[in-house]
Specification:
With 255 residues, the protein is α+β, with helices and mostly antiparallel strands. The chain has a single domain, classed as Aminoglycoside phosphotransferase (APH), C-terminal lobe (Aminoglycoside 3'-phosphotransferase, Chain: A, domain 2, Alpha-Beta Complex). The chain has eight helices and ten strands. The chain has a five-stranded antiparallel β-sheet with strand order 1-2-3-5-4. A three-stranded antiparallel β-sheet has the order 6-8-9, covered by helices on one side. A two-stranded antiparallel sheet has the order 7-10. A hairpin with a 2-residue loop joins strand 4 and strand 5. The chain is globular, with a radius of gyration of 18 Å. Residues 1-8 have low confidence and may be disordered.
Length: 255
């Protein structure tokens, strides 16, 4: 969801588009088009119960979901330096904590076994197709194993990229893109929020709360796991995971 701007009410902006879904902006309205209505069902239900600010649903007419724009700007974007203050990152951590303390949603998330199977498949594909060096994949695969352990499920956003958290000053004004929400590992959300912005991990943890046992090695393991799982999807959908500061650089930083 792009930043709020004045005017341009008659212009149509393609925010993101690939063969699974598309998001368009017309003035201060975002139109999300998704052929998989299960994802939209999850998004609408998650936004209705999440204890953090979310976009207002204007209307829904499958396959289109219309959402009101949020005030503020994205906390950061992968591959770009963050201009948000440490206090804004801490506020994002506090918002994530409120979500994780909320009652569990009724639908499940991905299991450890599902993630392990997906990781095996993606690593094999990356090596077999010479997409990434074998030693890079092997090293990150070994690091990622630390994330594949039992966890106490919480209400997770499931795709909490820094670009999905909007802030104004030092306050969170909303969180977007809830289609992957479900029961999951709290450290996964914290890892995705700080992916590519490791320098703000301490700020996020400070906002999240020191009374929680946060295993930073597991967060780092999720960085490797998420990046390994994302490379093929991104490449096949028109994105470049090798752009500076993005997934491939995250994997290289683990070396």
């Amino acid at each position: 969801m792009a930043d709020v701007e004045d005017g341009h009410e008659d212009e149509v902006e393609v925010v993101v588009a690939h063969n699974e879904r598309a998001t368009l902006r017309v003035g201060d309205v975002f139109l999300k088009v998704d052929a998989d209505q299960r994802r939209t069902d999850v998004e609408v239900e998650a936004m209705a119960v999440a204890p953090v600010p979310t976009p207002r649903v204007l209307w829904r007419k499958p396959p289109v979901l219309a959402l009101a724009a949020l005030p503020g700007t994205a906390l950061a974007r992968l591959g770009e330096p963050s201009t948000a203050s440490p206090a804004a990152w801490a506020a994002a951590g506090a918002a994530v904590r409120r979500l994780h303390d909320a009652p569990l949603p009724p639908w499940p998330g991905r299991s450890v076994d599902e993630l392990a199977s997906a990781l095996d498949a993606e690593c094999a594909w990356l090596v077999a197709n010479d997409v990434l060096p074998t030693d890079l994949v092997t090293r990150n695969r070994r690091i990622a194993e630390a994330a594949l352990r039992p966890w106490t499920p919480v209400f997770t956003h499931g795709d909490l990229q820094c670009a999905h958290v909007f802030v104004a000053g030092d306050e969170v004004t909303g969180v977007i893109d809830w289609s992957e929400a479900g029961r999951g590992d709290a450290l996964f959300d914290l890892a995705i929020l700080t992916l590519g912005h490791e320098e703000h991990l301490d700020d996020v943890v400070a906002g999240y709360g020191s009374d929680v046992d946060l295993d930073l090695d597991v967060i780092r393991a999720w960085w490797s796991l998420r990046s390994l799982l994302a490379v093929r999807w991104l490449a096949e959908h028109g994105f470049d995971p090798s752009s500076p500061g993005c997934e491939v650089d995250v994997l290289r930083s683990r070396m």
